Amino acid sequence: MSFAMHGVGVSGGIAIGYAHLISHAVLEVPLFILPAAQIPDEIARFKAAIETTRLEMESLRANIPAGSPAEFGAFLDLHLMILGDSMLSRETVNLIQSKRFNAEWALKQQMEALLTQFDQIEDDYLRERKADVVQVVERVLKTLLGHPGPVSQPASPDLSRILVAHDLSPADMMLFKQQRFAAFITDVGGTTSHTAILARSLNIPSIVALHHARQLIRESELLIVDGQQGVVIVNPDKQILAEYKLRQGQWEIERQKLKRLKSTVATTLDGTVVELHANIELPQDIPQVKESGATGIGLFRSEFLFLNRDDLPDEEEQFAAYRKVAQDMKGLPVTIRTLDLGADKQLRFADRSGDNPALGLRAIRLCLAEPQMFHTQLRAILRASHYGNIQILIPMLSSLSELRQTLHLIVHAKQELALAEIPFAANIPIGGMIEVPAAALSVPAFAKHLDFLSIGTNDLIQYTLAIDRTDDTVAHLYDPLHPAVLQLVAMSIAAANKAGIPVSVCGEMAGDASLTRLLLGFGLREFSMHPAHVLRVKQQILKSDLPHVTRLAQKMLKTHEPEKLHQLLARLNA
Ligand code: PEP
Ligand code: MG
Known about the structure:
The chain is of the alpha/beta class and 574 residues long. It folds into three domains: 123 residues, Glucose Oxidase, domain 1; 109 residues, Orthogonal Bundle (Enzyme I, Chain A, domain 2); 272 residues, TIM Barrel. Helix content is 47%, strand content 13%. The chain is built from 23 helices and 16 strands. The longest helix has 24 residues. It is globular and about 75 Å long. Bound molecules: phosphoenolpyruvate and magnesium ion. The site of phosphoenolpyruvate has 11 residues, from β10 and α18. Phosphoenolpyruvate (PEP) binds next to β10 and α18.
């Protein structure tokens, strides 16, 4: 059966491929009601999965490595016992038969019923065996999901896979960065969640906020993902498939054409030069930066060096990473943002998300609360500054006292290095991010202490409109064109220009070519974005007439009517 789903497109392009369901927790399984004729096969599939799991566990039991803890054998015996218990398998089979559930769902239902019974047990030891039941069920689910049984396998191995997930953390996305997939789609997440940003950084189509994709799509089903429109078509018919293949080809031709602009200087029609910098997460992203023709790194999200690991990178490791980026960029500016940990980017071994993570101990607040961790990073950045053109960028500043404390710590790190005669760039520029309305309103005061500013529109929108950027239920309210957002962005740019310090935008607004002229009209001359967007934004700049865009952009600041704003934006982009 063919059907379409609508979400929020976060990275353009069209992908055609086979669904690969992934989940954070193996227990996140889809539900579908099977046709009666498929029931015997489903039961056979479930029994085969139990048998495969039993064989795996028995083989583990027979080959326990020397030196393993004594409990290991007993633990496997217990798991084999649970696996063989008819309460688990017989009842699951009953559910497949009576409710026509797929095996995964039926097993999960039965597991939950068993766990409720465990809750009523008085004996602590037995009650704690709940975790063992979950682990055994996870093993069987893995077998079931790994062998999709009756579901069709990809007919052609060269057609790429499309990841279908309920949710992906930024840390998960970093792991997927090393693999090749045709597209990503998720049920939750907003357009500027870090997950979406990373999906975009892979330069493949992606859609978030699909709500039920993980539940409705089955392993290996054929999908079309239109990242531009935010549409997923499941099991398309031949005609639709042909139409999208055509569109996919056109998109690719367009992309190839843009590549010709790589070494063209980004100047407006009247000859004003605009700097286009790149955002990166890891030193490995540099080849993509070079490919895009970006003339510097405007945002190195250094916290990604800290994710997916069980320890903190030490000074040497950080120094090597920062130095590599500085050297690879050969004298072009490299803006290293100090740690923006917290909220959706938590350390694996010290999750401090709290009840309201976006408003909690995040970014510079966390660094000031953990001075040793911050000091190590500052030393590493300063040492690397000797090898290239590095600048320091402080995230999520909200008050002058925070800024003063930070500057004080930087001075302290410099003094320590100087005393030890370790070289660093004594005049390393220090900038601040404008991501909180309080900061946007404080630009004149901040500018007195800083060498440059960078507007993080992703957070600025989140905090101005009180919309959690990771929450798909409010994703539709996330609006870069909200008059309050436009006022704050325009005001920050104007105040920095007046103070005579460089200002850039490094949030997702900078990479959205439909907003390029608006930002130019606000007086912005420096943009930083994911490398994949540089050429499209450059194409816009090359066709822009500054006096004209400035007039229209200023007009946009005078209206609060959404419809009028959209009309003016259309005129600006005409
Ligand atoms: C921003 O908030 O706009 C920004 C660039 O920082 P991040 O997306 O990493 O929070
Ligand atoms: Mg931010």
